[in-house]
Amino acid sequence: MKICFVIPTLTSGGAERVAVTVLSALDSRHERMLYLFSGADGVYFDRIAPGVRVVVASKRSWLARLLELARFLRTTQPDIVMPFLSYFITAIAVWLSRVPARVVFNQGTPTTGFLEDPDFSWQQPLRRRVFAWMTRFFYRRADAVVVTSQGVADDLATRYGVPRAKLRVLHNPVDLEVIAAGAAEALNEPAGEGPVVVAVGRLAGVKNYPLFLAAIEQLNRSTPVHAWILGDGDERERLEQVAAQPPLAGRVRFLGFRQNPWAAIARADVFVLTSSYEGFGNVLIEAMACGTPVVATRSPGTIEIIEHGVNGLLVAHEPHAVAAAITQILTDRPLRDRLVARARLDVQHYAVPRVAERYGRLFQEMAA
Questions:
Q1: Is pTM beyond 0.90 here?
Q2: Residues of the chain with pLDDT > 70: what percent?
Q3: What distance in Å separates the CA atoms of residue 124 and residue 33, rounded to the nearest whole number?
C-alpha cells in the first residue's frame, strides 16, 4: 500500500509523536509518506524511520497549501491518507485531487473538550458553531475515524453524529525500549530531602497545574514533599509566581521541556496527572513503564488506561483527593508495589509493534 500521513508540523505534541511513531513502525514494504505543512521547529525528525519519505510544503497561505497538497496526492496516488489535526484541509485536498484514497482521520482528544479549552480561540460562539458544523460534515464523510479512547468515540458519536461504525478505537503507541533507555540515564537534579512528586506536560490551562500545586500545598501540611514539573508553555510564568509563594516556596522546581523526561519520572516517588481532560494520556503509560506509580484525575482518556486500585489511582478534580491519593501511595508500600507490578504488565498492550500491527490491519481493511 501507499500510506500518507498529513500533519501541520512536528512540534513537541502528542499527535506529532504518534504520527511519527506509527508511520515509522508500519511494515516497511508499504510506501510510507509524511506530509508536513511546515518543517520549522520540528523536534521529532530524528525519530522518523529511514524508509519514510518526508515532504515539507513550500506554500504558506492556507489556499496555496490546499492546492499544493492536492497536487502531491494526485502525483503520488496514495491508498490511505490519514490526517492528524489538519482534518478539513486534507479531506478537501483528497476530493480536489480525485484520488480514490481512503481518508482515515486520527482524533486524539474529545472535540467538545477541545472547543471548551481556553487555550484556543474556539470559545468564541461563532467559531465554535462553525467548527462544530465542520466536524459533523467532514467526520461523517470520512471512511473511518481512529480515536484514542472510547471516551473520544462517545463524544463524536453523541455530540456530532459520527456513525459508530466509522469509529475505531486504537490506543496510542509507546516505545518501551526508548523509555527504558531514557529512564536509565543519569539525572543531574538534586531531589532534596523527602519524597518527590513529578508532573509532565504542556504548561497550559487544560493540564490544570493549579490543581497540582494546590494538592502539593495541601500535602506539605502533613507530608513534606518536593515537586518537579517538566514542560513549557504560556502558563509557566504565572505558575512559577504561585509556586514562589509560601508554603510552596522552595518545594517546586520547573525543569522545562526535556527530550528525555523519563529519567526524572523514573526517580520520582509518584507521578501525577491533573488534566481537566485527556483524550488518552501518553505520559501516563510512560510513567507506568518507568516503574513509577501514577495518580490521575478522571477523564475520557485516563479511565481508559487506569484501573483504579489495580495499576494506578483515579481521583476527582479536587486538591484533597489528589493529595490523599499521593499520601496513600507514599505510606502504603504493599499498595505501591502492586500498582507498579501490574502497570509494568499492562503497558505491554501499548508497545509500538502491537499498535502498529493494529493500524496495519485497519489500513488493509480500508484499502480492500
A1: no
A2: 98
A3: 36
Res. 115 pLDDT band, cuts 50 70 90: confident
Cell of 211: 490543581
What the block records as the C-alpha cell of 150 is: 472510547
R_g (Cα) of the chain, nearest Å: 21
Strand partners for 169: 147
Using an 8 Å Cβ cutoff, are 359 and 24 in contact?
no
Q: Once rounded to an integer, what is the mean pLDDT over residues 23-47?
A: 91
Alpha helices (runs of H) in 117-233, residue ranges in sequence order:
125-141, 150-160, 176-184, 209-219
In this prediction, residues 285-289 reach a mean pLDDT of: 97
Helix extents (H) in 209-308: 209-219, 236-243, 262-267, 282-289, 302-305
Tell me the per-residue pLDDT of 290-307, one tens digit each, with 9 for 90 and over: 999 999 999 988 999 999
Q: What share of the chain is helix, strand, coil (3-state, %, to 5)?
A: 50, 15, 35
Cβ pair 363, 1 in contact under 8 A: yes
Q: Whole-angstrom Cα distance, residue 106 to residue 275?
A: 21
**38 neighbors 57 (Cβ within 8 angstroms):** yes
Alpha carbon distances (Å) from 37 to 21, 57, 71, 74, 158: 18, 5, 14, 17, 32
d(Cα 248, Cα 242) in Å, to the nearest integer?
8
331: pLDDT confidence band, cut at 50, 70 and 90?
Answer: very high
User: Which domains, ranges and CATH numbers included, belong to the chain?
Assistant: 2-173+351-367 (3.40.50.2000), 176-350 (3.40.50.2000)
Q: Is 363 exposed, middle or buried (0-12, 13-18, 19+ CB in 10 A)?
A: buried
**DSSP bridge pairs for 55:** 35
